[in-house]
Amino acid sequence: MPKCFYCGVELDKTNRSLEHIIPNGIAGKLSSYNLLCAKHNNKFSKIDNDLCLNLTLFTNTLNPKRERGKNPKCKMGYNNELIINRLASGEYYADDKILIKQTEKGAFLQFKTCFSSDDKYKKIKKDKFLEICKNLLLQKGCQEAILNKKLKEYSNIFENSIKDEHNPIINFNISFNAKNNLFPATLKIAIEFYLYNKLPSKHINNAIEILKSFDEKAILNICAYCYPENFYKTDSVYHTIYLKADSNKRVLYCCMSFYGVLNTIVLLNDNYNGDDIEYSYCYDLRNDTEIEFNNKLDFDIKMIEHFLDRNYSFNQKIVECCNVFMQFLVKREYKFDYLYTQIKSVYNSILLGKFISNEENYANTFYLQITNMIKSDNELKYIQNRFIKQISDACLELYTYEQYLKDYKLDRIGHIFSKILAISIAENPYILTNMDLLADKCCTTLNKVNTNDLCINEYLAANKEIICNNLREFITSNNSFLQKINYYKELFLLK
Ligand SMILES: [Zn+2]
Question: Of 18, 262, 397, 419, which is most buried with the most CB atoms under 10 A?
Answer without folding.
Answer: 262
